[in-house]
Amino acid sequence: VPAVAETIPGFEANAYFGLAAPARTPPEAVSRLNAAMNDALGDERVRAAFARVGADAAPPNTPEEFRIRAAADAQRWGGLIRRLNLVAE
């Protein structure tokens, strides 16, 4: 069976985890959470734990970079999710 990328040129899909906070979270709290997350992702023990389950730790990023990534994925996949009536459980 061919891989999806072999059948659909340009196809790319990957999973990721992110840390989110309520919309009105104070910016200083968001900054502290972001710094702590980036520090953790740079820790070799955390990176090794990711590797043990076949995952890669993300490079450091900002809340704005994550927002842009999530918005792009919502734009890309949102229509299909709605059309198939997929819901998280």
How are the elements arranged and paired?
Layout: H1 4-7, H2 27-42, H3 44-52, H4 63-83
Question: What can you tell me about this protein's structure?
Answer:
The protein is mainly alpha-helical and 89 residues long. The protein has one domain. It has four helices and no strands. The longest helix has 21 residues.
Largest sheet: none
Q: What fraction strand?
A: under 5%
N to C succession of SSEs = HHHH
In total, the number of domains comes to 1
Q: Could you tell me the radius of gyration in angstroms? A: 16 Å
- What is the tally of beta strands? 0
- The average pLDDT is 92
Keywords:
mainly alpha, 0% strand
Question: Brief overview, please?
Answer:
Helix content is 56%, strand content 0%.
